[in-house]
Amino acid sequence: MKIGFIGAGNMGGAILKGYAKTAAQNGDQILVFDINEEKRTALEQQIPVVSACSSEKELARSSDVILLGVKPNMFETLLPQIAEECTSEKVIVSMAAGVSIGFIQSYLGSEQRIIRIMPNTPAQVSESMVAVCRNQHVDDQTFRQVFGIFEAIGRAEEVDEALIHCVIGVSGSSPAYTYMYIDALIQAAVDYGMDEEKAKVFAAQSVLGAAKMVLETDISPEQLRINVCSPGGTTIEAVNKLMENGFMDHVKEGFAAAVEKSKAMTK
């Protein structure tokens, strides 16, 4: 396949780099266009399977799969520019929050094959969680091929587009909440005399390990918490204080705020 990336910013660039090794193994070619000429030239020079294009139209014309990595407010400008090149055989992949499959179809036609994804920023270290939605024109074989792009940068799951707002709350935005938690642990450790760099390692590795316990055992997060909390011990003392201060409720409120914002901005 020829897989084209329009926009190679933080997310688009992370997906491109994450898939490059798999692309080489599969015999795929990656095309890229970014308004920053230096960026697209650097990608072409650094990654053997990448070729830079001089315009969005050239990339759309030459690609089998077109990933749109531009900001949501650019779609009304971009889609008309590439509409002529987007034949029904091509697959359009959008990663923009608030841009529905229906909105893209309104510019590219009701027969266009469209996949919508919601990745998150850990794509930069190949640990992304990617939700993948498709319209009725994307057949299973094509879907599996495109789905493989996102498995190369972490984990991917197919969901109905109706769940995309929920996905934003639970994975799209949640790295930010997790960074806040890690940062609070670091600051507290520094206050108690630990070097900041060492505190970062202790806090981040503990979060990484806890996440792997959730993913790699059959034990529920609640039970895992209980297992750590010896009666009268230090952990249960901390957990009780967090519960007393509404820790769980605050996380749920943040989640809900992200979901409602996603609903409000969707077009």
What report would you give on this structure?
The chain is α/β, with parallel strands linked by helices and 267 residues long. It has two domains: 2-160, Rossmann fold, CATH 3.40.50.720; 172-265, Orthogonal Bundle (ProC C-terminal domain-like fold), CATH 1.10.3730.10. The protein is built from twelve helices and eight strands. An eight-stranded mixed beta sheet has the order 3-2-1-4-5-6-7-8, with helices on both faces. Helix 7 (164-172) packs across helix 12 (247-265). The model has no long low-confidence stretch (mean pLDDT 96).
Secondary structure topology:
Elements: E1 2-6, H1 10-26, E2 29-33, H2 37-46, E3 50-52, H3 56-62, E4 65-68, H4 75-82, E5 91-94, H5 101-108, E6 113-118, E7 128-134, H6 140-151, E8 154-158, H7 164-172, H8 174-191, H9 196-216, H10 221-228, H11 234-244, H12 247-265
Parallel strand pairs: 1-2, 1-4, 2-3, 4-5, 5-6, 7-8
Antiparallel strand pairs: 6-7
Helix pairs in contact: 7-12, 8-9
Protein name: Pyrroline-5-carboxylate reductase
Binding site for NADP(+): 6-11
Pfam families: F420_oxidored, P5CR_dimer
**Overall geometric form:** elongated
Task: Determine the mean pLDDT.
Answer: 96
Instruction: Give the number of domains.
Output: 2
The low-confidence runs, each spanning 5 or more residues with pLDDT under 50, are none
Rg over alpha carbons: 21 Å
Q: Beta-sheet strand percentage?
A: 5-15%
Helix proportion: 55-70%
Give me the CATH fold name of the largest domain: Rossmann fold
Spatial order of the strands forming the largest sheet: 3-2-1-4-5-6-7-8
Query: Main beta sheet, described?
Result: 8 strands, mixed
Number of helices: 12
EC number: 1.5.1.2
Main location: cytoplasm
Subcellular location: Cytoplasm
Pfam families: F420_oxidored (PF03807), P5CR_dimer (PF14748)
